[in-house]
Amino acid sequence: MDKNKVIFIVGPTASGKSDMALSLAKTFDGEIVSCDSMQIYKGLNIGTAKESEENRNKIKHYLIDVINYDEEFSVAQFQKLAFEAIDEIWQKGKIPFVVGGTGLYVESLLKPLSFSNTDKDTEVRDQLKKDLENYGAIELYRRLSEVDAKTAKKLSPNDTKRVIRALEIFYKTGKPKSELSDDNRQPSFDYLMIALDMDRELLYERINKRVDNMIFKGLVQEAMSIENFELQSMQAIGYKEFKEYNGFNLFEITEKIKKNTRNYAKRQLTWFRRYKEANWINAFDELTATKLVENFLKS
Q1: Interval 25-45 mean pLDDT
Q2: What is the dotted CATH code of the domain comprising 5-112+185-298?
Q3: Which range (8-17, 122-131, 188-197) has the least confidence?
Q4: How far is 95 from 187, CA to CA, in rounded Å?
Q5: Would the pLDDT of 40 be above 90?
Q6: pLDDT tens across 155-185, in order?
Q7: How far apart are CA 299 and CA 294, in angstroms?
C-alpha cells in the first residue's frame, strides 16, 4: 500500500519559502502547515513575517496564531498539532506542504522524538534558570556539551530554552536527550524536501530590507507593547533586541536585528544541509520546484 505524501519547503529566513509554497500549493491542490516557532503566537505579526490574511484565505494555513504570546510552546506540542493538521489535509484528499525554517520542528516530524514525552521537572528547571542568571549561557552550554555532545552540536549556546530542556532531561533520566530520541526511526509517510538557496549577499540584502520594512510597518510599537521581555516569545530575534530600547537608539537596535537575523540564516543553512535527501534549488526556480513535486507525486 502506498504511503501518504508530504512536501517540505525549507531554507533560511527571507529566502522566499512562503511565496514558493503558495504557488506550489495552488498548483497541486495543497494546504500549508507552518513550521515556524514564532508564527504560532497571536499578536506577534510584524516581527514574525506572517503570511497575509489575503493569502491565508486563498490557501488554508495551519499552526499560525495558535497560542497567546504570553504562553509557552514546545517542540512536542508542535509535533502533535502538526501531525493532526497533516492528517486533516490528507482526509481532504489534498497535499500537505510543511513550510518553514525552524529546524527542530522539521526534525520532530521526520524523526519523531520519544524524549518529548519526558515530564517536566520544575525543581530542576528552576535551578537551571538560576544557574543561567548566575553563570551565563556559555556555562550551561558547556555542561550540556559534557553530558550530551550530540545534542549540544545541534543547538546554539544562546538557545537557552532548549539547552535547559536538554540538561533537565539528562538530570531527570540519567540519559542524554540524544539517546532518548531514535535517529533511525522513519516517518510513516513519504516525503520530498525542497530546500531554497540563493547567493549569500543577495540573501543578506533581502534580510536587511525585510527588517527595514518591519520597522516601517510598526515593529517598535508591536515589540514595546508586550512589555515583558522575559516571556518565551520575546526571546526571538526581532523582539529581544528591544529590551535595550530607550527611545533614542532605534538605529542601533535595527542594525542588531539585521546582524542577528543574518547569523540565524547561516545557522539555518548549516542545519538543513545535514539532510542528504534535500533537493537544493535556486530560491527563484519555480519551474524546477514544480517538476520535483510533479515527479514525486507520480512516484
Answers
A1: 97
A2: 3.40.50.300
A3: 122-131
A4: 16
A5: yes
A6: 888 889 889 988 988 887 888 887 776 555 6
A7: 9
**What is the DSSP track for the chain?**
-PPPEEEEEE-STTSSHHHHHHHHHHHTTEEEEE--SSTTEET--TTTTPPPHHHHHHS-EESSS-EETTS---HHHHHHHHHHHHHHHHHTT-EEEEE---HHHHHHHHS--GGGGSPP-HHHHHHHHHHHHHH-HHHHHHHHHHH-HHHHHHS-TT-HHHHHHHHHHHHHHSS-HHHHS-TTPPPSSEEEEEEEE--HHHHHHHHHHHHHHHHHHTHHHHHHTT--TTSGGGGSTTTGGGGG--SS-HHHHHHHHHHHHHHHHHHHHHHHTT-TT-EEEETT-HHHHHHHHHHHHH-
Nearest to 61 by CA among 27, 91, 28, 35: 35
Q: Specify the pLDDT at position 170.
A: 86
Q: Which CATH number fits domain 116-180: 3.50.50.60, 1.10.20.140, 3.40.50.300, 1.10.238.10?
A: 1.10.20.140
pLDDT digits (tens, 9 = 90+) for 112-159: 765 455 666 678 888 888 889 888 899 999 999 999 998 898 888 888
Residue 8: per-residue pLDDT: 98
Residues of the chain with CATH 3.40.50.300: 5-112+185-298
Cα 20 from Cα 9, distance rounded (Å):
8
Residue 32 is predicted with a pLDDT of: 98
Q: Where in the chain is the domain with CATH 1.10.20.140?
A: 116-180
The pLDDT-based confidence of 291 (bands split at 50, 70, 90) is very high
